[in-house]
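Quick entry between incubations.
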Amino acid sequence: MKKHRTRSTRLGTSRLLAVVLAFGLIVAACASDDDDDAEEAPAATEAMAEESMDESMDDEAMDDDMDEAMDDDMDESMDDSMDDAMMDLSGTKVTVFGPESSEEEAGAMQDALDVFAAATGIEIVYTGARDFSDQINAQAAGGNPPDIAVFPQPGKVGDFAAENWILAVPDEVQAAIGAQWPAGTLDTVTFGGTLYGVPNKTDLKSIVWYNTSIFESGGYAIPQTLEELQGLMIQMLGDGVTPWCVGIESGPATGWTFTDWMEDLVLRIHDENIYDQWVAGEIKFADPRIVLVAQQTLDIWNTPGMVYASGGSIAATPFGDNGEPLVAGDCAMHRQASFYAAFLPEGTSVGPGQDVDVFYFPALGVKGNRPVLTAGTYVSAFRNAPEVWAVMAYMGSAEYAEVRQSAQAARKGGGQSGFLSANLDQDLSVYNDLERSFVEILQTASPARFDGSDLMPAAVGAGTFWTEGTSAVNGDKSIAEAFAAIDASWPQ
Amino acid sequence: MGALGGALIGVVIAIGASTALFFGANWLFDLAVDRWRTFLATSGALVGALIGAVIAGNDVAGGPLWLWAAVCAVVGAAAGIAASLLGTPSKSSRTRLSERGRLVTFLGPSLLFAALGLVIPLIRSIYLSLLDSRAAEWVGLANYGEILTNPNSLDLSGWTEIFTSRLFYAALVLIAVGLGIGMAVGRRRGRTMEALPGSIGPIAIGLFVLSFAVFTTLRGTVINNLWWVVVVTGLSTALGLAAAVLADGVRGESVAKSLIFLPMAISFVGAGIIWRFMYIARPPQKPQTGFLNAIWVWLGSLRPRTGGAWVAVLILALATVLLAGLCAFGVRRRQTAFAIGAAVTAIPVLWLIYRFLGPGLGGSVPGPTGEPIAGTILFLQEAPFNNVWLMVVLIWIQTGFAMVILSAAIKAVPSELIEAARVDGATERQTFWNVIIPTIIPTITVVATTLIVLVMKVYDIVKVMTAGNFGTQVIANEMWQKAFTELNFGLGSALAVVLFLAVVPAMAFNIRRTQRADA
Amino acid sequence: MSTVTASSPGPAAGGGRGAGGAIERVDRTGKLIYGFLRRIPTWVLWLMVIVWSIPASSLFLNSFRTRDAQRNSGWWESFNEGGWTLANYSEVLGTEQTGGLARALVNSFAIAIPATVIPVAIAAMAAYAFAWIKFRGREWLFIVFVSLLALPNQVALLPLLQLYAGGAHWTIPGTEFTLTLFPDFDLAGSATAVWLTHTAFALPFAVFLLHNYISSLPGELFEAARIDGADHVTIFWRLVVPLSVPALAAFTIFQFLWTWNDYLVAITMIGSNGEAWPATIRIASLAGEFGLREHVLSAGAFVQAGVPLIVFFALQRFFVRGLLAGSVKS
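Done. Structure below.
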């Protein structure tokens, strides 16, 4: 392998000393790595980005890969019609790094990749780390990136593209998966007209989990509009029922529940155009329209009797801890994303007529639209190689979604898998009823908007929007003070 | 098993190679004194092999690495022999060379690692701190300016409130009491001021309380860091020393020390979870699952109405009478420390009785119907004392650190010294204060200095427990967020440099003082 | 109980034998009170031990409880409720990702052992040199060296990762020629990169601590040895190392458990190569995104803490020996 010369480390000291150290340690290094597969040698990223773009891919081979990978009926084609291009990839290795790290989710991800690995002979290893978001920064900046990273924040895909750390998705891959996803899905990770990511997973955020027995005994109807929801909340207050469970604590990410509420309400009280401008930084946080939404959110939360917070206060309550009180009847509703079923106490049944059911977080009746807030992950590549693109294309495919969904549901022992994909070509029969209804909302949403805090620059979206928002929720700062601080932190 | 074998072989080879390098180098410098020619030839060969490797490694010319190294080694050896033919230096200069060389073998590895792993990154950080967030453009001291002008880092606006806080007056009273006792005893012994536990104790506690008065009114990241340093360093060192002394020679010493040491063995991930379980609060109508809030709410539910509660008050009152008696006894026998100890112990007991009969002992607030209901403490959210609750976590961990080092130092105090003091008729207390403490002072300095530095750099606890929210941000966590989460290397590096510069003077001062004491 | 109290020279209230003369003259009640007071230091110690043990024992009890039980009632309730389960432990021990927990524990050893032994060795040498080899600028070099302790380690992570991932290269200004200052050994992603980093980070503290001890050793001993013709290597090996065992043991304990429990350095240097991850990262990752399965970390913390505790127990006996070593002095 050709050595890349990088100037990234400024070592001014005597080269002699460095080489002495090197000699002393190389022996140990080689020996202790005996068992680590020393083959993969991720080159320094800068050099890689420069050079790899020059190397033209073997287009023919690429096309064949994609045809193969995209074949709708994988199981049939796998066994018999393995052509030469496919065979070429066996023996290669692809590493995938992402934020999903629990035994069930990372395991299901690996299961799904194993299916493709068995078919192609590519060794695919998925590694999930809890603090992926910080680590992928360090690994990319330090020149030790994985082959593929799974980004939950499209904004970060943009940052990485600007740094030339990730590679543009080749047209063949884009052509193969583009049509499989709802319109606009790829726009989220298209920067300057170039696509940098492939959609991998989708979450539905605009839903409300509710305690069915409270609704039944109180005779409450599922609200169809935001106005009805407002009325329902007041009705519940009068009946002595606590309408909401809210908690925004989430370790280093404390505050994201607040940002979700705000985003959902910006889409409803205003519209998607204002939402887009706000997310892009064209409308400031201090803008009266945005302040109004925050004020409305906090007015609901701060109304006495309106919110049950199992940790003593909203800011002190881990968002996951609200599952138990929702089932126990301490509150009637909990606005949280589609993966929340996993946080409900063991043995809780979910679905129509069960312990807990779900309704769509309604929109303003006077507007008559049906906005949906989504989230999800995108995969991006750090290494330019046919096997990497083959895996990328697979991770955006319907086959991947189906295998992953089945594997994850199996690993969770039935019930809710927590995995959704908005892929249009997938066979929806692998989903259970509730999750299928989520997918249908995702596929038909209009307008659908990606979680705004994940699109904003990291300094805001994973920084001040969380921290200053938390200050406002906790009453440490006024909304005006907090939002002025967010605006000040927006990178120029 | 393959993995285990490979890993262990690697470890053995690494350690073996380092040992061989060390003894080889020493052998080489032994040669310099007695066998000058062999020394020159060997060093020539080594230097040659190195140059050969550099040439081959840089593709200056073709050929395999081993060949270049071998050829250059032979050339180097020949050059060495040729040099030795020019004449042999005097024995004394050869010895001096050998000594120099040995210094290099002793210091070299440490200096090399420190240079590569610490000095170069430090210089890089200083450089990056003068650039913008993408390390592209020169911005001068703008990053430092941003740190100092950001109200989140330093907010001195509330300074006048220091003088109206209760803590401030409590501190003044304590300091006055300490000074008063010191002067009273001093006059009796013909000095202006006497340093004894009865006077130093209240003054020290008073200063500690005074620091709380300051740190709770002035806010910001920088202030938080200073607060951490004062509280955690002070308490960890003091408690570690206390544990080391109290456990020394006691039956069950190793059990006691192991249990105090246990927190050090638990990872930060575990510690974060532990203290979440300690601090968590639940709504009043639910049973508390957090240990501290459970106790707090239970105390709040105690009312002086039941018979049992009156018995408790009675016992407390008896204890007060007993303490008063002891105090009188001490005064009569001119055992000042004894009297003060009893009097001081009586204060919290009296306070307990007052709380019990009056506002209640623990968490209890009037509910909507006027009936008292449980009142919880949101340990991590209620500023500014949430900082203290975070510090408790680090104190819990670091006391074991201080204890182990100080215990080793106490055990290393020569028994002859202690025996000699005993023979001279010193009491155990005098032995402790006049023999043991002076002997281990350098170690206390080491522990305190290390803790200051370690506490200045604290970030994991804050990151895990509050993420810097609710006014608990510290410099190192902010640095992490800027540099790693937001990829703002300019500001992140500037914060690192600030942190470094803030600690270095204290360190250098401490080390210099120890050096003087040694000399 | 007499052995317990006789040797506790505590500074606590009322303790000590200073009142000895007075005591003989007071009545039996006084003696009782005095005996009670004399034991206070021991009582204070055990009170402290209890306070220190509560947090960890709460986690220990919770590690045998389900997530819902952990959330709904305090750990002390588990004595009434029962419902103990080993599910958390089986989830931690049974993880299948990237080679499972066994592989991760092996990696932890492969990192922690060299990251402890090598710094101890080279720091002891440096501490000896700073203490007993005279050279110009010694004091200032020592201050500069130990001051590096104040450097936040995080700032060194990225430069070191770049060094391991790509080596260090320098293009000589004005020429096309690039010189390799540090070859690319492909260390990033391996345990080696982690312990090399730990070694660098550990040195300032190690030298500081060991220097404090080694410089307090009696100089006459070394003078005598030098007159007998011993060189520095002999003195270091035959005198300094044996006499410094308590300090070496203390540092070994800390360095081992810091490196064993380290998360940040390991994940930065290893990154996405999960097969080289030590147990800390493997276990922490089980919590999953959004802390979905955070309750298993209670069991993970104890699996993780086992080895450092064994090391502590094994090395603790050297502290008692320190007494003997110290008495060699005069």
